[in-house]
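The instructor's notes for this session suggest beginning with a concrete chain rather than abstract definitions. Hand out the sequence below and ask the class to guess, before any prediction is shown, which regions might be ordered.
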Amino acid sequence: MPFLYLIFLSILLIIVVQLGAFSIVLTKLGLSPDSALLLLISTLIGSLINIRLFTMDSSFEELPENYLIPRTLFNPIPVFKGKIIIALNVGGALIPICFSIYLILIYSVNPLHFIPAIFIVAAISYLFSRPIKGLGIGIPIFIAPVTAALTALTIAPAQSAPLAYICGTLGVLIGADLFRLKDIKHIGAPVAAIGGAGTFDGIFFTGIIAVLLA
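After discussion, reveal the predicted structure:
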């Protein structure tokens, strides 16, 4: 599953680059080609790495025999015993968080702008997200980026591009992942990664699409 996910992301990335969309994102965010390439490679590789945080009780006592158990860093083969491992995905959560902080510092984004923007996207993401049995938390793919773009254009038009990425990524992480932790116990998966491939939000691409729309 992780390798199939990586292949899917790679194909999608090629399509985006071919269309020239990513070059627009580079211009809007002020990234150099080398910095953008490093960000992309780090995100793709990091999407295969889950850092274990803690465990919680699951409402499922056993899994189907052929269920594919995801691998997590420092715990290569988790065993499902009525517990679910909560992990942090490097490519889908850690890197977007760090990059968002970088954008806030570089563009000196006003807290009065990015805090309410993140709250709005988080609230919408929570309302539209749903637990998917055996997988994770799902959300319609365009809900978060469209909300982030409109929010950024409304709150701070002059900084709409970086603000769209910031509230798009952090808003989804908070609203669709963190606020939904209480629902994780009902999905029947041994591992739930915050920002991981088990969610349909595609946090990195949520930020990219939000920047394109802003």
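Then share the key points. Residues 2-213 form one domain. Residues 160-178 form the longest helix (19 residues).
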